[in-house]
Amino acid sequence: MAKITYIDASGESRTVEAEIGATVMETAIRHDVPGIEAECGGACSCATCHVYVDDAWTETVGGPEPMEEDMLDFAYDVRPNSRLSCQIKVTPALDGLVVTTPERQA
Ligand code: FES
């Protein structure tokens, strides 16, 4: 298990237990975390699971693969720390991860 904290655009934060091997998107959906829609179910083809990775975590999480980068073009208010949460797999190294959801999804 790894703890993940989701902060919404208004600053409200929720910390949940994530299963190792699940994605950050799946974890949010499982725990009814608002702000992540995930319309395509994790296929990297909707950009509605967009999150901002906390500055302290960007290096550990790493950057997007080319396919994800292309999809991020469709996300709302993309920033250098933007990722699609369905493409971030939870590992023990991500215990304590903090992500923020954007004001709205694509
Ligand atoms: S759930 Fe569709 S791109 Fe992540």
TrEMBL record:
Assigned keywords, A-Z: 2Fe-2S, Iron, Iron-sulfur, Metal-binding
Cross-referenced Pfam families: Fer2
Listed cofactors: [2Fe-2S] cluster
Gene3D superfamilies, per the entry: 3.10.20.30
Domain 2Fe-2S ferredoxin-type residue range list: 2-105
Domain of life: Bacteria
Family to which the UniProt record says this protein belongs: Belongs to the adrenodoxin/putidaredoxin family.
Protein name: 2Fe-2S iron-sulfur cluster binding domain-containing protein
Organism: Chelatococcus sambhunathii
